[in-house]
Write the structure tokens for this entry.
Amino acid sequence: MLLKLPLIIVAVFGLFMLVQFFVEAPFLDHTYQEILDWVQIIYLFTLWVGAINLIKLHLKKSTHKKEAPYSVVTLSGIVIMLFFGLIQGKEVGSVFDWIFKNVQVSLQASMFSLLAFFVASAAYRGFRARSTEALVLLSVAAIVMLGRVPIGDLISGLIPDFANWILNFPSMAARRGILIGIGLGTVATALRVLLGIERTYLGR
Amino acid sequence: MDFSTTVAAILSLFIFSFLYRDNPFYKFAEHLLVGVSVGYFLVISIDNVLVPKIADRLLRQNDWSVIVPLLAGALILARLIPKWSRWSQLALAVVIGVGAGVAIPATLQAQILTQMKATMFSFIPPENSIGWLYILERIVILLGLTSVLAYFFFSKEHRGVFGTYARIGTYFLMIFFGATFGYTVMSRLSLLIGRIQFLLGDWLGFLN
Amino acid sequence: MKRQYIYLLILAALTIPLFLPLGLKHQVTDEVEKFYQTIEDLPPGSTVMVSFDFEASTIAETKPLAQAVLRHLFSRRISVVSLSMLAEGTGLGHSFLKEVADEFGRKYGADYVFLGFRPQYQATILGLGEDFAKVFPQDYLRNNLSDLSLTQKVRNYEGISLIISVADGDLPQYWVDYAQTRFQKPVAAAVTAVMATSYYPYLSSGQFSGLVGGLKGAAEYETLLGKAGLGSKGMEAQSLGHLMIIALIIIGNLAHLRTRKKI
């Protein structure tokens, strides 16, 4: 029964939401809103599974000699945020908000800004025009890079116009093709899920 | 150069030290980031979601309807215990079922029908005269869209006329990837500019 | 060329223009103009929903974007109901909103409200269309929505004239898929540059009422507002950075050709 039940739940909830989209029936409204509410709550728990798993991992690692200090740092970060956030609150000016702005935001912004260095390194080492396709890709990239900054306009007024044209026509057309393709794939997969054909989400 | 900015700046420098090589300062900053991020998420999810949506309703308003999603949520937590993990599938099925159910009409309308309609409508000529550029642009849209779709159509072998047409699609894809690559470079450099402005301006006060 | 030299080159290209401004001017693109005009066309007293769908990693782009858009809204006396689809966007969104609202002397509860964070995009977007208070019984500051004058007046999308998603991912697409398809709400997006190219079909089809992309988009928006901000200040560094990347690609390819000929 436990094998079949998830498939039945998926079909019942999925078909209800599908039908609800097309049929305007006030008596369905309450159930519809309740279900949307349930999904938000259940989803929150799925996010907690990730957080709890991470805590478990670091608790385990904190007993290993080499990794212990770093895992203690991670665990301390969690405890400190929980303590100040839940005791003092999260308003602007609180300790929680101070840590968020000066530690978390700063670290995360810096972490991602490293990508600028890696892009520069990859530009020199990796981006080779080995085929016509690669040449097209790199040429378009160069035109867009120049056309989207003030210096492109300084070199020639045609560069920004050409970059705009590329974005609005050939690039847009290709992306539209991808979008329609993804859309068809999404609809097909969703139907397969509702009909119980697609079961990979159950690990089967 | 106040205390808060100095703390933020020093932590940023710990991250940048990775450019030289992996080192304990970087590792410390990396682990601290993971810790505070998870802590931040937990606080927001408890204070902003759990309390108003579950605790208040249950304890202050005696709204027992919240018990159902709460039990389903508890089933999700069963995932943490290997022996019971299969029970989480029941709650997961609700999320997946609802997701699939709402996705079908929304995707069909927003991503397929509206996009196709927009392509067709772009062929309705404007009231003023049509120039050669206007015609070229419409040909580009039609050729680009159909050839890219042909490229992704794998039920027919990419040979002969169809193969050539699908090959045109790869060039359109390269144009899209090139434009995206250009914009990605732009994005990444912006992130670093933001950090340089912070370090040299907000922290050291060298910039106006 | 050693990896560290490349790092130094890009660092120099991005730093020097910050000290030596060249006074370069930039064009305003149609998509940004369209976004600006959409807000200009809203009658004062309208309410707009702003969703902060980004995380701290992209703050260098999303902060100038959010600030420019919020400045425009508050300067036109448009009320803002705001939220975030990502937990991290909550703290950032709330502080940007407060900062700009204070600049214009707008009052919390009457001129703007910050709802906070909800997980699961589809259910949240669809739920808000029915009843804000069902999805958010309380706002971010734990006020009941029924106690705030703005949310007493605006209870669901019916009172919302435009939805703006400031995003670093695919959230604007969800707003189109669910809020627009089901509730026919106009959607506009201010996104990081890396996401911008993906959204041109939505602009061309009219599903987006405007598109502002990246730091350059923010700079264009600031030009339209007539007030230079974070976007404009970074544009010259961006210019030199792009030139440096193009030069590195060309040099890299030439070096590769030379070694290939030798073989």
Notes: The mean pLDDT of chain B is 94. Chain B touches chain C through 53 residues (CB under 8 Å).
